[in-house]
Design brief:
mainly alpha; Rna Polymerase Sigma Factor, Chain: A; elongated
Length: 188
């Protein structure tokens, strides 16, 4: 999307220039890490406009919090973490994602209190741990809001197979959430 300008600024120079509020350093930082962050967001949504919104919100966080970056890890890793928080915040606000994870079985220990104690990025990591086909169906259904008919057509499976993958994903996520919830209960 962006033409890469040849710059040899170190992370320290980029951060220092951004902290001085110099636009060229802000632009270089954005351009240097944009493609990586956009790629990460596109793993969760096929909508480039939504991904762009998430990336830009993430970079807004980066520029607001840049003074807290302490060079104890890589700048890219730190930026990734902030963009990932923007990603999880977006899905918390704009999708059925978290509501979908509140399972209908009332006898389950999983409830809204349990989910509220977990970070959204923990939940996204759990989704990442699913087998690829189940993860894709879950993402399309619970995050993107597609129907099973639409999913079946888009990835070339039957409606029944789409439903099976969704049920499998929910079952695995339920177990992961219960395990996480139990560790929260025993830690506190």
């Amino acid at each position: 999307m962006f033409k890469t300008r040849n710059n040899n600024y170190s992370e320290e120079e980029l951060v220092a220039g951004c902290l001085r509020n110099e636009r060229k350093y802000q632009e270089y930082l954005y351009r240097r890490y944009f493609a990586t962050m956009m790629s990460m967001c596109l793993r969760y949504t096929d909508d480039r406009d939504i991904a762009m919104q998430i990336v830009n919100n993430g970079f807004l966080r980066v520029f607001k919090k840049l003074s807290t970056f302490s060079f104890k890890g890589s700048l890219e890793g730190w930026i990734r973490k902030l963009v990932y928080h923007s990603l999880s915040e977006y899905f918390k606000k704009h999708s059925r994602y978290l509501q979908f994870l509140v399972f209908e079985e009332r006898d389950s220990q999983i409830n809204e209190t349990a989910l509220s104690k977990m970070y959204e990025d923990d939940l996204l990591k759990m989704v990442d741990s699913l087998p690829p086909a189940s993860r894709e169906v879950f993402r399309l259904y619970a995050i993107e809001g597609y129907t099973h008919v639409e999913i079946a057509k888009s990835i070339g499976i039957s409606v029944g197979t789409s439903k099976w993958h969704l049920a499998s994903a929910r079952k695995r996520l339920k177990l992961l959430i219960e395990k996480n919830y139990n560790s929260i209960l025993h830690a506190g």
